[in-house]
Design goal:
The complex is a heterodimer of chains A (407) and B (82). Chain A is mainly α and 407 residues long. In chain A, 42% of the residues are buried. With 82 residues, chain B is mainly alpha-helical. Chain B has a single domain, classed as Non-ribosomal Peptide Synthetase Peptidyl Carrier Protein, Chain A (Orthogonal Bundle), CATH 1.10.1200.10. Chain B is globular and about 30 Å long. The chains are: A mainly alpha (407), B mainly alpha (82).
Chain lengths: 407, 82
């Protein structure tokens, strides 16, 4: 969060806003890549920028080699060979980052993770991972996956500078939201939005609201409950509920700052929160909370898994198709658990959420819809009940992982 | 921007009627999953798979993920078959 409290941040936003209007001769993504590189260098250090550019160049070269292959049997084999390597390489960087820099790693005894941890302790790799950690390697990993899948699916391959602007947009660092590669590419098809008072006021309003939520409301809330150096209570479920509210205030605060800056600079920036506390099912809660992460797993995990399974097993046998859907629905939650932390409690948290969301779907489709047709209840009864149920389940499941989360 | 011919539009409408068990559903361009009972993540993929079979086309996961309404779906199908 240091970027938002850095005095250089508003100056860099202003620089990008003014110079962004001059990009008519250069592709917008490339011009933003140039301005963004300067901002990343100033905010997070030139070493982080250098490592980012090297990483970008490596993936750009690999993707260019894969996408420019000639059609034909040899080309198909080459793409099939290269595709998993690209994904695995991104996963290796992510695992090295988790192994080296997380305070706790419950899977360090696993042979693969142990070997990667040893490899990551080599000074040069260690330094590189540390530099990338400053610009949020967890999010770079997500964006790399989105980039690889989109380009292999036929999206335009941006030039390396433009690609670095997508991988680490300075105003979405270090905590998201997770931007979308295909949206970033579309910037080149759109003209720069003309400077208007309405756009300026709307964007500035979002930024001010974000700063207020993050630096005033969330901080006062924290000071009031745990004091200056206090620790968040994790032993009780009530403590977890309060902590969840604090996370919402802070996280939605910096998501609003990012959204406001994105609107101001005309850089596609996803909305990250949509009143999660009004959700009436657990599945809906996670569609409204950290929405850009939810949409990421939908695009890159749920849909590809479900489509692959349906193509493999067919859709004619509805029961098998339904079971594959339930499995595909649970998988993203397990991924999200592990993505947060390499600990058993986070894995358990992801599994429990996956099971709950799958059970919710079965109950809703097989029982609730039939019941609703027979006994329609007014919304003023069902909605509060749904909200109470959802918040109870969300807090209890988060309590499983809350100790690790707060650390 | 490609648009579906009348015969193909009728074919698509029939797919929707059969899948969502709703013979009076009107396929306006702005129709979204939220407007149709039963159009959830499972039936979204199911719908795409049926359209792939009926129109003899293939969609990428990016294309499936980006579909926001029926209008976009019609455009996408039209861009593949004409």
């Amino acid at each position: 969060m240091a970027a938002y409290s850095n005095v250089a941040f508003p100056l860099l936003v202003a620089m990008c806003y003014v110079l962004g209007q001059l990009s008519s001769r250069v592709r917008r993504t490339t011009w933003f890549g140039v301005l963004n590189a300067v901002a990343v260098g100033v905010l997070f250090g030139w070493r982080s920028l250098l490592i980012l550019l090297v990483l970008t160049l490596v993936y750009w070269t690999a993707l260019a080699a894969v996408t420019r292959v000639r059609p034909g049997p040899a080309g198909v084999i080459w793409v099939r060979f290269a595709e998993p390597i690209l994904y695995i390489s991104a996963a290796i960087i992510f695992i090295m980052h988790k192994s080296l820099l997380e305070p706790r790693n419950d899977f360090s005894s696993f042979p693969l993770i142990s070997s990667l941890s040893h490899a990551a302790s080599v000074p040069m790799i260690h330094g590189g991972v540390q530099a990338l950690q400053l610009i949020a390697l967890s999010y770079i990993f997500l964006r790399l996956i989105d980039l690889i899948r989109s380009v292999l699916d036929g999206a335009t391959l941006l030039d390396p500078l433009a690609m670095s602007g997508f991988l680490v947009p300075f105003f979405m660092t270090p905590a998201g939201p997770v931007n979308v590669y295909s949206d970033h590419v579309k910037m080149d098809e759109q003209a720069v939005k003309p400077v208007t008072v309405a756009n300026f006021v709307d964007s500035t309003f979002l930024i001010v609201c974000g700063y207020f939520l993050k630096f005033v409301v969330a901080q006062l809330f924290s000071l009031f409950l745990v004091g200056v150096n206090g620790n968040w209570p994790t032993t009780s479920i009530g403590g977890t509920a309060v902590f969840l509210l604090y996370v919402f205030l802070e996280f939605s605060g910096y998501s609003l700052i990012a959204l406001g800056v994105g609107c101001l600079l005309s850089i596609p920036t996803p909305v990250n929160f949509n009143h999660p506390y009004l959700a009436t099912t657990v599945g809906e809660f996670w569609n409204r909370w950290h929405m850009s992460l939810g949409q990421f797993v939908r695009r890159n995990l749920y849909i590809p898994t479900q489509v692959a399974m349906m193509r493999r097993f067919g859709r004619k046998n509805r029961e098998i198709a339904y079971i594959t859907n339930i499995l595909a629905l649970s998988l993203p939650f397990i991924f999200v658990g592990i993505w947060h932390r390499f600990t058993w409690s986070f894995l358990l948290w992801g599994i429990s959420l996956g099971i709950i969301v799958a059970v919710e779907k079965v109950v809703r489709e097989r029982l609730f819809i039939r019941f609703k047709r027979l006994h329609e209840q007014p919304r003023w009864i069902t909605m509060p009940l749904g909200i109470v149920y959802t918040l109870t389940v969300v807090v209890v499941t988060l309590h499983i992982a809350s100790g690790d989360f707060i650390r | 921007m490609a648009t579906l011919r009348e015969a193909d539009e009728k074919k698509l409408t029939k797919i929707f009627h059969d899948l969502f068990n709703n013979p009076v559903l009107v396929l306006t361009d702005k129709l979204t999953a939220g407007d149709v009972e039963g159009w959830d993540s499972f039936n979204h993929i199911n719908l795409v798979m049926i359209v792939e079979e009926e129109f003899n086309v293939r969609f990428s996961t990016s294309e499936i993920a980006q579909l926001a309404n029926v209008g976009q779906f019609k455009e996408l199908i039209a861009s593949k078959i004409y």
